[in-house]
Amino acid sequence: MSDDVARFGRIYDANYDRLLGYALRRTDSQEDAADVVAETFLTAWRRLADVPEDDEARLWLYGVARRVLANHHRGLNRYRRVRERLSRAVAPMPPEPAPGEQATAITAAFRRLSELDRELLLLVGWEGLDMPQIGSVLGCTPATARVRLHRARARFARELARQGVGGVRRITEQPTVQEAL
After folding, report:
1. How far is CA 38 from CA 16, 64, 111, in A?
2. What is the pTM of this model?
């Protein structure tokens, strides 16, 4: 065993518990604390020549852990900001319709459609895609997408009629979300 490995082992054994306690008091989870300690000791191994001897090593490790924690907290803050931006950018799911006979009948009619018909109607009504975009998603030409959509709408209208649903507006190629619902 080399002198460096033996020295690092002594530093690790003498300071692990204290550093873990330090990190636990400054993080939200045991896993985060363990990551901070691991990163701290990785830095110590990489910079072993810079680690002071004896009790000074503990203080040096605390300084490294402090910087690792600062990086950890900056990363968490970046994550939270990105998550907030994404949640604002992504359209929220519409609220469930109030229980009612018509909403139940529409849902039942929609569920009786084939997977492709449902996908077509959702791509137009919910995602707001146009025919070239739908063709790209489905791997067909815009003209084929238009024909498939026309047929899906007709099948949906027949299912709605079977359910006794009247007065439902036709789904246009680019409706608003409210119109699509």
Report:
1. 9, 11, 52
2. 0.49
